[in-house]
Amino acid sequence: MEGVEEPSKVKRKKNRHKRHERISFSATLPGDVSGVFAGSICAVKLSKDPFSDIRESILDMIDDAGIHDWNAIEELVYCYIALNSPEVHQVIVNAFLSLCS
How far apart are CA 13 and CA 29, in angstroms? Predict the structure, then answer.
């Protein structure tokens, strides 16, 4: 039929429109990151409670990567510092230190 679109074409058009409404951010790790975190995907998150969100993220990363040594934790601290603005660095340090006590 002329003038009538196939249902699959209509659905694809709706999905394409939805994709344009979404906003997605990502960040890239510094090139000198190696070990367990090399090739990791970084997500950007807007937070109302940066300390709690960063602390939770750190715990997730430690658990997901199975980190058990201090060198890997230092690399993780480096990644968080490198990926975030200086305004957040003290929050990152405090979140890491809270896990040590």
Answer: 35
Task: Count the Cβ atoms, other than its own, within 10 Å of residue 6.
Answer: 9
Give the rounded distance of the alpha carbon of 98 from its chain centre.
Answer: 21
* Structure tokens that stand for 35 in this block: 């070990």
Is it the case that residue 15 has pLDDT exceeding 70?
Answer: no
CA distances, 3 to each of 10, 15, 38, 54 (Å):
12, 21, 52, 53
* Its pTM surpasses 0.85: no
Closest listed residue to residue 42, CA positions, set 51, 52, 54, 50: 54
CA distances from 57 to 5, 13, 44, 76, 80 (A): 46, 36, 11, 11, 10
Mean pLDDT across the stretch 52-56? 94
DSSP 14-53: HHHHHHHH----EE---TT--GGGTT--EE----S-HHHH
